[in-house]
Amino acid sequence: MKILVVGSGGREHAIAYRLSLDETPHEIYCAPGNAGTAEIARNIAIGAEDVAGIAGWAAAEKPDLVVVGPEAPLVKGLADELAKHGIAAFGPVADGARMEGSKKFAKQIMDAAGVPTAHARTFTDAAAAKAALAEFGLPVVIKADGLAAGKGVVVAETQAEAEAALDDMLVANKFGAAGAEVLVEEFLDGEECSILAMTDGERAMLLPASQDHKRIFDGDKGPNTGGMGAYSPAPVVTDEMLPEIKERIILPVVRELGKRGITYRGILYAGLMITPPGGKLAKSGSRINVVEFNARFGDPETEAVLPRLTGNFAAALLATARGRLDESALGVDSRAAATVILASAGYPGAYAKGKAISGLAEAAATGALVFHCGTRNGANGLETAGGRVLAVTGMGATLREAVDNAYAGVGKISFDGMTYRKDIAHKGLAR
Ligand SMILES: Nc1ncnc2c1ncn2[C@@H]1O[C@H](COP(=O)(O)OP(=O)(O)O)[C@@H](O)[C@H]1O
Ligand SMILES: [Mg+2]
């Protein structure tokens, strides 16, 4: 199969890597890719958000399938453009990508479909929003409606923090149009997890559950990042919960979108909050509630989940893109996987680029999988080129072994300013 993967991060390297494991060889391209994808695919110099450029390349090159990594090109309508050229796209049309692009839209779909989620109200006026805060109690969650690079959500512990967040978004326009409308939302008590569901607009298949680590420091401290690590399976999600998540969350959303003329094909990623026994139940009355949806594979969840999938990955993606998902097409390796992100000093704030990276061959020799997130081939050979630089995945018979194997790989790698969390999977290991 001839396949184009759109994007340039660890997620896209993991997608290309997993495609390369299929028994039948593929011709894989990445736009634009990175130094890691260059080893297993052909990088083409078109930016991931250059919808016209990618559609033009696809119209000329006629790939069998385009797999879209990041949300931005989906929200901009890349899948719609590819459809015009008769090219199969794994990733929803722009109307479907609104499940990620607008938190208000996602709430409307969930409310219409009866999907358990945090109770919320939307506002454009700061005074009206402040007046409504009392209804929600504390803590309360303030969210910008649109895409805000992971910075548009404030979990406010005090009334003053909540009011400041509302002023930032609605008065000071901190997030521009993305924050012109806000949601004031009920705080959900519990532990988060990620469910990546593959759907063709009718059927759905849940990929194994995972959990990521948003904060920069050990113990889940410090500012939010794009994600500092992940592991799968996530034991907070028990086997009994999976059918419930599929039947009460994923399929109702897909069907509600279908009713509105939106055929959603690709990954519907549900960020869930699981409330423990004894924890404070949400208004919905459910122990499993949706925190948000994303319209694509998670990063770094993908680097932990995809290495666990067995079967013909490309065929499963293509069948999904064509509306013929076979729910038993992929199997799951019983081994656990853990992924540690190696970041540049200073991330998620300002950081330097161009630092030479060494030890990747030694890391690979330990059996760890090394995915490139922000790298390039430069004056120093392989160099850092982003805040998140590498994702190192270990596999093992137990989660403990997977974590140890990931850190054994990490121990071989170095670059100036390399930082990483030492406690990846701590919640899973504690269970
Ligand atoms: N209703 C909620 N209750 C508790 N925590 C929440 C709630 N909504 C969001 N959060 C926290 O804020 C984080 C970011 O919110 P999310 O809706 O996932 O937005 P985004 O990923 O677009 O920034 C979540 O991962 C979660 O930790
Ligand atoms: Mg999120």
Polypeptide structure, described:
This protein is an alpha+beta fold and 431 residues long. The protein has four domains: 2-93, Rossmann fold (3-Layer(aba) Sandwich); 119-186, ATP-grasp fold, A domain (Dna Ligase, domain 1); 189-332, ATP-grasp fold, B domain (D-amino Acid Aminotransferase, Chain A, domain 1), CATH 3.30.470; 336-430, Phosphoribosylglycinamide synthetase, C-terminal domain (Glycinamide Ribonucleotide Synthetase, Chain A, domain 4), CATH 3.90.600. It contains 14 helices and 24 strands. It has helices at residues 10-20, 51-61, 71-75, 78-84, 94-101, 103-113, 126-136, 159-171, 241-259, 301-305, 313-321, 360-365, 399-410, 426-430; strands spanning 2-7, 27-32, 42-43, 65-68, 89-90, 120-123, 140-144, 153-156, 182-186, 191-199, 204-206, 211-212, 215-217, 221-224, 229-232, 266-274, 288-294, 309-310, 331-332, 336-343, 369-372, 375-378, 381-384, 388-396. A hairpin with an 8-residue loop joins strand 7 (140-144) and strand 8 (153-156). The longest helix has 19 residues, at 241-259. The radius of gyration is 21 Å and the shape is globular. Magnesium ion binds at residues 271, 292. Magnesium ion (MG) binds next to loops.
Topology:
Layout: E1 2-7, H1 10-20, E2 27-32, E3 42-43, H2 51-61, E4 65-68, H3 71-75, H4 78-84, E5 89-90, H5 94-101, H6 103-113, E6 120-123, H7 126-136, E7 140-144, E8 153-156, H8 159-171, E9 182-186, E10 191-199, E11 204-206, E12 211-212, E13 215-217, E14 221-224, E15 229-232, H9 241-259, E16 266-274, E17 288-294, H10 301-305, E18 309-310, H11 313-321, E19 331-332, E20 336-343, H12 360-365, E21 369-372, E22 375-378, E23 381-384, E24 388-396, H13 399-410, H14 426-430
Parallel strand pairs: 1-2, 1-4, 2-3, 4-5
Antiparallel strand pairs: 6-9, 7-8, 7-9, 10-11, 10-16, 12-15, 13-14, 15-20, 16-17, 18-19, 20-24, 21-24, 22-23
The chain binds adenosine-5'-diphosphate and magnesium ion.
